Amino acid sequence: MTCASSPVRGAEVWALLAASLLLYGCSSGIAAPQDGLPVVEACFVSASGVVPVQLEIAGTSEQRQKGLMGRTSMAPDAGMLFKYREPRSASHGFWMYKTLIPLDIAYLNEDGKIGSIRKMVPCPSASGSGCPTYPAGVPFIEAVEMNAGFFLEHGIGTGDRLAIGKDNCPAN
């Protein structure tokens, strides 16, 4: 009797394959993207104009820690807004552990004004200790991660601001 002619044997092979894939996925070190975060319409306002964006909000410690880990792509106008209850120091920063796409990050004050922008590259290290951090360089209470090159492409820089909510975005 061959494996193909035995339904029990075939089921055993499929079960073994499924278990192997599950174990590989769990041990590969790649984090799954987080689902179910609230999304807000917002815009960056600069001398170059108004740039509408869709931002997922990471407002809890767990959501901020996971951030954009595991994402393989992001829409051109999409990003993630990291909100803190208390201001962070200039030495506080972000890292790219388990983050697969290059990002830019803007650090914002309580008025939504951009204090600094940093370019961040994916970290191939198997452990977080092998990944660099990207400190803000200025105190901040929010940060926005966008695809690499977003801010430069749209003429957005320090001193420009983020407005949350479509009603707070001036017409172009």
Automatic annotation (TrEMBL):
Residues that span the membrane, as ranges: none
Residues annotated as signal peptide: none
Pfam families xref list: DUF192
Domain of life: Bacteria
Name of protein: DUF192 domain-containing protein
Originating organism: Marinobacter manganoxydans MnI7-9
